[in-house]
Amino acid sequence: MERELWESLWRLMTILCNYLPRGRFGDDEILAVYFWAVIHDRPVSWACDRAHWPRELMRHAPPSQPTMSRRLRTASVEQLMASLESHLLAISTIKLLWVKVIDAKALPVGGPSKDPDAQWGRGACSVQHGYKFHAVWGFGPLPIAWGLAPLNVSEQRLAKDLIADLPGEGYLLGDSQFDSNVLYDAAAKVGYQLVAARQRPGTGLGHRRHSPHRLRSMELLRRPFGKALYQLRAHIEHYFAGLTTFVGGLGPLPFWVRRFNRVRMWVQAKLLLNAVRILRRTNPSLAASS
Fold first, then answer.
1. What pLDDT, in 10s, does the model give residues 228-255?
2. Looking at the 3D structure of the chain, how many domains does it have?
3. Residue 270 contacts residue 250 (beta carbons within 8 Å)
4. Same domain for 129 and 201?
5. Non-local CB neighbours of 139 within 8 Å, separated by 6+ positions
C-alpha cells in the first residue's frame, strides 16, 4: 500500500513540475524522496540510502542528506507541496458544502524533548508537550483549511485565523472549546453560523453582552433541525481517525521531526498521503487521473 500511495503522488508531482526548469534533482524528485521517508515513518536520511528503495523505482543515486536538508527549505519545494494540496482539494468530491466542522488534534513529543518550538498545553485528556493540529473539514479527503501551533496556543486563537479564510457560507460546527463570542462574530463576518455546544451547559448567561450569533446557536441546538445538524460533527472523528490509523498515518511525532517548519511539512505530507488513500478507495478513476 505504501508504494501505491507514493506512486500516485509521484505521478502528480511529475505533472505539476513539467513546466519548471530542472537541475540535477528537480523539486518533484526531492519531494519523492521525502514522501518515501514519510510514508515509511523514517527519517529523510533513511530514504537517501539507495538500498531502501526498490531497484525499479530508484535507478540512480538519490540526493544526499545535506542536499535534501537544503532543498526542502526552498520556496519552490514549499510551493510544490502547496500545489499538490490545492490540486487534490480541487479534484475531491466534497459533500455538504454548506456544512463544515472545526476541531483540533494534539501532536505530542516526548517530555524531555529540547525542541524550543514545542510547548506544554492541554492535549487528549491530559497535559502534553508538543504541537496541535487544527483543521476545518468540508466532508472531503482534505481539510478546507488547517494550521499548526504549539500546544499552549488556545484553539480559539488559531480558529479565528482559519475561519477568516473560509470560502463559501453555511454552518460551522464545533465542540464547546469554540463556544466564544469572538468566534461567533468571526464566523458570521465570512458568512457562517457557528454552532457549538455550550462550555457551561445548564447555566445562565449572566449580564454581559453576548453575540447574537451565539444566541442563535443556542436556539438552534434546542430545535430538531439544530440537533440533527450538530450530529454531523461526529464526522470529524472519522477524519481524524482515518488520518491517524492507516499505515503511514499521522501519529505522535517521531523523534527526528522537531522544530515548527519540519513538523508542519511532516503534517502536510501525511495529509496528502491520506487524501490519496481516500481517493483511491472512493473514486479510483479520479485518483488515477492525478
1. 999 998 877 787 788 888 878 898 899 9
2. 2
3. yes
4. yes
5. 94, 95, 96, 99, 100, 101, 235
